[in-house]
Amino acid sequence: MKPLQLSPETAVKLAEKLNVPLEQLMHMPQHILIQKLMELENENK
To answer: How far apart are the two ends of the chain, measured CA to CA in Å?
Structure first.
């Protein structure tokens, strides 16, 4: 599995929002990352 294709700025912002270390974020499978982003979105509503 290749690392996520994110810009460094985006990766840092996502890591902060999801409260995960940057290294863990970069090795996270894309479907799990999308699921976490959806949960975050639902919390904001």
So the answer is: 33
